[in-house]
């Protein structure tokens, strides 16, 4: 069934999974593992997949994990709920939040972003808080760094 519908698949996909790992001293670090198809066979199926990892401990809130699947057309985010032991879909990043991420990446502060987007600085701060919650990042700098790594920027 999978191969029967492969023409509908977009194989330009970056999968990012961050997880908690316990070190020998019983402290944890967060590893972001990413996989991307770098070569396809004659039928267009993945034949070589590159997988690599990043230590993102300084970027993420303690005890959190995400799954981000990013293709050219869509970005999906899930948070892992450790209490329920399940993935929970995150509301998609809105066009306004995407624009905010781009402006934050350019080093703009809330006041400048508000003026550029014709919104109140309080609305900017609300969007920033929502982005931090969706990504489980510790602060704005971590948010921008994480967004670059997983392809949100």
Outline the fold blueprint:
Blueprint: E1 13-22, E2 28-40, E3 46-55, E4 66-71, E5 75-81, E6 86-89, H1 95-105, H2 110-117, H3 121-135, H4 140-150
Antiparallel strand pairs: 1-2, 1-4, 2-3, 4-5, 5-6
Unreliable runs:
1-10
The coarse silhouette is globular
The structure class reads alpha+beta
Sheet with most strands: strand arrangement: 3-2-1-4-5-6
How many helices? The count is 4
Which percent range describes the beta-strand content?
A: 25-35%
First-residue to last-residue Cα separation = 34 Å
Oligomer: single chain
Largest sheet: 6 strands, antiparallel
Q: What's the alpha carbon Rg, rounded to whole Å? A: 18 Å
Q: Report the count of strand segments.
A: 6
Mean pLDDT score, rounded? 88
- N-to-C series of helices and strands: EEEEEEHHHH
What level of helicity do the residues show? Answer: 25-40%
Task: Summarize the structure in words.
This protein has 153 residues and is of the alpha+beta class. It contains 4 helices and 6 strands; from the N terminus they run ββββββαααα. It has a 6-stranded antiparallel sheet, with no helix packed on it. A hairpin with a 5-residue loop joins strand 2 and strand 3. Helix 1 packs across helix 3 and helix 2 packs across helix 3. It is globular, with a radius of gyration of 18 Å. The N terminus is likely disordered.
């Amino acid at each position: 069934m999978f191969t029967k519908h492969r023409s509908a698949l977009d194989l330009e996909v970056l999968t990012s999974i961050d997880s908690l790992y316990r070190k020998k001293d019983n402290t944890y670090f967060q590893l972001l593992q990413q996989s991307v198809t770098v070569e396809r066979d004659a039928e267009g199926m993945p034949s070589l997949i590159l997988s690599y990892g990043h230590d993102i401990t300084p970027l993420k809130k303690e005890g959190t994990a995400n799954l981000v699947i990013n293709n050219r057309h869509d970005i999906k985010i899930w948070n892992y709920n450790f209490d329920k032991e399940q993935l929970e879909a995150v509301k998609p990043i809105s066009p306004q939040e995407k624009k905010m991420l781009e402006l934050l990446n350019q080093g703009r502060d809330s006041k400048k972003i508000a003026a550029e987007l014709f919104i109140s600085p309080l609305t900017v701060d609300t969007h920033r808080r929502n982005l931090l919650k969706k990504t489980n990042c510790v602060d704005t700098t971590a948010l921008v760094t994480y967004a670059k790594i997983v392809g949100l920027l």
